[in-house]
Write the structure tokens for this entry.
Amino acid sequence: MSLRLGVNIDHVATLRQARYREMPDAPQVEPSPLEAALEAEAAGAHGITAHLRADRRHIVDADIQRLRAEIATPLNLEMGCTEEMIGIALRVRPASACLVPEHRQEVTTEGGLAVASQKGTLGPCIERLQAAGTRVSLFIDPDLEQVRAAAELGAAMIELHTGAFANAFGAERTAEIARLVEAAQLGQQLGLQVNAGHGLTCRNLPELFAVPHLQELNIGHSIVSRAVFVGLRAAVAEMLAVMVHYPHVSHPGNRH
Ligand code: PXP
């Protein structure tokens, strides 16, 4: 199976909120995250990712409902592990939910989940979501302890945080790639579906391709940035054109 692309459309909502936060129902509100999702799908995206944050700073509840009703590809809901978000996910029933740490002050998700030290909170959350048919992914740093903890909790997937890789150069980047390779190998051995995301671009993907067993990439910032100049459909197509060169055959995780 080829490497799949989930397009993160949060930044389309960020742009909308910059102007219309106080008047969400005005007829002139733009741009529409749903329209962005449909454009991404038209370009060949395999899924749509949206992060409903506790403070609703970009994506809002109505966006999630519209996306769930209108898109053709699977919806991946990024969310913090809170009772409020679990309730929403159980009502909306997205195909998958990616659990992320959420800190109010951060501009975007900064680090991976500390799974190993939060098993008591994460375990029941994973169980409830997966019992309702939503496959759970844990957004973690490429750290073997976290990969093991994700498998122990029964999550179907992990999403390896590639932010450190994206921000490192030279020897540091080489070291980050080695961490990602080891984490992906262990994830695969433990039966987890291995995904990756954060800070990925058309330029850094070829280096990421040293990492085996990847099945899905979630990419937002770079695609939306490029879309300002060439349009979203073309920006998604450019990313997909790079992704077809992923050299490893990816097999789905063998659990769930
Ligand atoms: N995956 C997760 C879990 C994220 O939190 C984010 C950022 O919202 C992304 C992927 C996409 O990252 P970027 O916008 O840097 O492509």
Remarks:
- Strands lie at 4-8, 47-51, 75-79, 96-99, 135-140, 157-161, 193-197, 214-219.
- The two ends are 17 Å apart (CA to CA).
- Residues 171-189 form the longest helix (19 residues).
